[in-house]
Amino acid sequence: MSRPVRVAILGATGAVGKAMIETLLRRKFPFTTLKLLASARSAGQVVHIQGVPYTVEEATPESFADIDVALFSAGGDISLRFAKEAVARGALVIDNTSAYRMDKSVPLIVPEVNADAFSTHQGIIANPNCSTIQMVVALAPLHRRYHIRRIVVSTYQAASGAGERAIEELRETSRAILDGRAPEPSLLPVAKLKNHYPLGFNVIPQIDVFEENGFTKEEMKMVRETHKILGDESIAVTPTAVRVPVVYGHSEAVYIETELPFVVDDVRTLLRDAKGVTLQDDPTRQEYPQPYFAAGHFDVFVGRIRRDLYAENGLNLWIVSDNILKGAAYNAVQIAELWLRQEGITA
Amino acid sequence: MSRPVRVAILGATGAVGKAMIETLLRRKFPFTTLKLLASARSAGQVVHIQGVPYTVEEATPESFADIDVALFSAGGDISLRFAKEAVARGALVIDNTSAYRMDKSVPLIVPEVNADAFSTHQGIIANPNCSTIQMVVALAPLHRRYHIRRIVVSTYQAASGAGERAIEELRETSRAILDGRAPEPSLLPVAKLKNHYPLGFNVIPQIDVFEENGFTKEEMKMVRETHKILGDESIAVTPTAVRVPVVYGHSEAVYIETELPFVVDDVRTLLRDAKGVTLQDDPTRQEYPQPYFAAGHFDVFVGRIRRDLYAENGLNLWIVSDNILKGAAYNAVQIAELWLRQEGITA
């Protein structure tokens, strides 16, 4: 195709921004222009992409005047400041922050699950929260077939979900503890709050701030976004979101109850055939997903599938995926690929 | 008191054995003799206790001839070999292995929960699995008052639960990954099985071997032992047991449903007043249990208490405790203290 495909990445110097660049390349996304944008603080940095140096520019409304698709991952406040400006200038905004996710006029898309929502966009499409994305990729095929009524999920979330500085803090606190020094956390679990706890050799049952109901904002995202993506607000979701000392890859212990009965082997077949899912489920061979091995891959890995011992139609699963890729950058690029398809552009 | 209190520890050189010695001292357990026993391989090692050198002896049936209370923590096969020999020679055996836990003639005791079962022993008392102990300490008061019908629990278990070599392997694989070297695991998740995975910066959803039903033995212990300790086989327990890169302290995300309605503030009061529980539950002050801070303490820490968003009588909790202390050594010493009380011996 000869038409230009002009892509911008806002937040290009962050963990997700860098993964977006990498993912565009891995997916051979047919961009003709790639504009890297960031705040004034990061402007001027040079990023090398396939040997070509790209200078990161400071984002302004005019930055988007010649852009077709803009991937946003620079924080919710930045999205609120620039998304409508970019849309007004003709760009499609794919926003990785939580700014627009629950906006009724904004589709919230996981391409394997609800790609059909793409056509309803009015310029902005939201990329869901990482822990929600991997859960719905695995559960949507089961929901379609058996109607999920109940989800109880406990997460084991990686440091990278809190950004590059959190990865650094995990490394530093881990090294301190290994060396017998006192760890000195200053960021996790929530930078802007008063108390900081070491993540090295620890687990922290707080991700994001608490809401009035005693659940964290991260946990409530898993409730609300799951409802919106699956288009079903009747599913009872009970989340506990926990940060663990892992660099890349979120894991989730998930218990579900379905309305319709299932045969466990059919569940395995459904998941083996599901788009975006890799089944890793053979206890006799100690085969099950682990974040250390899922890191760097695009798929959602599912294993430990077993019928509940008590509940009729109760099922347990273990779901792992790279939170920076499928949980953020790759899902955003997949949404951009829906745009390519709509425009009739082939890679 | 002038009567002799002769204590033996079998498996004195292991992680739990050492913690047993330490716990006897911290509790000022009034022993007059302390005999340290181990396999032939470890015999001859010298352990210093409050400045006094103790030589570890090789265990034989005759080792127990002059012993009142023997704490066993040297593996299930060793317990099967020596427990009845020790009982025949007049010792009370408190066994930390799984050898006798489900034996109907052996009480399985968590002193805060079912100390009354002590009187039924026939020479052997079993110490439950670590992940079960901390869960029932927190749940028993709620079960008594509100009748728990359903438990869904996901664990975050420390390396020390798999012994001292597992702690070493966690440290080595962590350091390798920090230094950019390939980790070389040879022990976890299950030494005798074929595949070994790094625990450093990873989570492994396998603890112990798999049973036919797809659950691991560790998970099934949480079902069966919970039933036995609470004396109620009707509770539906759904466990997922996961190893995380933590040295000491198991964490558990627990969802329960009760038969009777509750007020959340009453739940907090019940737990605040419960023996062996420390309530750490103030989201506004970011107060919740974490293994890094629970390590070295005897209590079970409970927080993140919140009513479920959907289920009537549904409640969520986060339970953390030192798996080597309350999960093993301290619970065993508490059982020995029940014997002291029966004998009318005061510390």
Structure description:
Two copies of one chain form a homodimer. With 347 residues, chain A is of the alpha/beta class. The first copy, chain A, has two domains: 6-128 and 328-342, NAD(P)-binding Rossmann-like Domain (Rossmann fold, 3-Layer(aba) Sandwich); 132-322, 2-Layer Sandwich (Dihydrodipicolinate Reductase, domain 2), CATH 3.30.360. Chain A is built from nine helices and 14 strands. The first copy, chain A, has helices spanning 15-26, 76-88, 111-114, 130-146, 164-178, 217-230, 264-273, 291-294, 325-342, and strands spanning 6-10, 33-38, 46-49, 52-55, 57-58, 69-72, 92-95, 124-126, 148-156, 236-240, 250-258, 277-279, 300-307, 314-321. A six-stranded parallel sheet of chain A has the order 5-2-1-6-7-8, with helices on both faces. A six-stranded mixed sheet of chain A has the order 10-9-11-14-13-12. The first copy, chain A, has a two-stranded antiparallel sheet with strand order 3-4. Chains A and B meet through β9, α5, β10, β11 and β13 of A and β9, α5, β10, β11 and α8 of B.
Task: Summarize this structure as a short list of keywords or feature phrases.
homodimer, 347 residues, alpha/beta, Rossmann fold, Dihydrodipicolinate Reductase, domain 2, 6-stranded parallel β-sheet, 9 helices, 14 strands, globular, threonine biosynthesis (chains A, B)
Q: Low-confidence stretches of chain A at least 5 residues in length (pLDDT < 50)? A: none
Rg of chain A, please?
20 Å
- Basic shape of chain A: globular
The CATH architecture classification of the largest domain in chain A is: 2-Layer Sandwich
What's the number of structural domains of chain A?
Answer: 2
Family (chains A, B): Belongs to the aspartate-semialdehyde dehydrogenase family.
Protein name (chains A, B): Aspartate-semialdehyde dehydrogenase
Keywords (chains A, B): Amino-acid biosynthesis, Diaminopimelate biosynthesis, Lysine biosynthesis, Methionine biosynthesis, NADP, Oxidoreductase, Threonine biosynthesis
GO biological process, one term (chains A, B): lysine biosynthetic process via diaminopimelate
